[in-house]
Amino acid sequence: MARPYYGIQLLDDIHTYFPDILYNPGRFLTVSALLEYIRTQTSNRFDLFTNAQRLHTSQNVVHRTPQQTPPRAPPPLVRTRAQYEVVPLNTLLTTLIGLGALNQDMNANFMDAVQVAPSAQQVERSTQLRGANAQDENAQCSICQDTFTSGQGIRFIRHCGHEFHRGCIDTWFQSNVHCPMCRWDIRDEEEEGEIAE
Question: What are the distances in angstroms from CA 34 to CA 11, 84, 86?
Fold first, then answer.
């Protein structure tokens, strides 16, 4: 068994069995290249029969009797520390968890938040349209901070009563399911209606 080098089991195993992952990560431009390296190293290290067979075939060894010692598997590749390129810790950790290779194979925006929008039916069920009147002229839309003018379309949320310019709240609902003021999820209106029935 190999002497622990780092004192951390994962790093020691990678150091022993898959050294290029630690010391030469630049050779893995894709996930498939990394996986092929792991497959090859595993095969070379642990498939003793295939290695012995390959050695036997490559050396044109004459068939041995069972009493004779079978050919030994080739020794694993051993490198000295000086032969390896020094890799910064953040690069090492990125390589270990696969982000370096994954970023090249996957969309870079995979960590972006997913926008959830209500359906047109959910908006219609949970809101109501009305025209602004003279009493509304002192109130303002909390989205655009502009006052309501007489005759302007106002959409209000039935559950909480918050009112907005129709255009402002309709744009808001293209990427959000909550009331901009109280964070009420307008989809909950539908669930309450189903329970009441």
Answer: 16, 18, 19
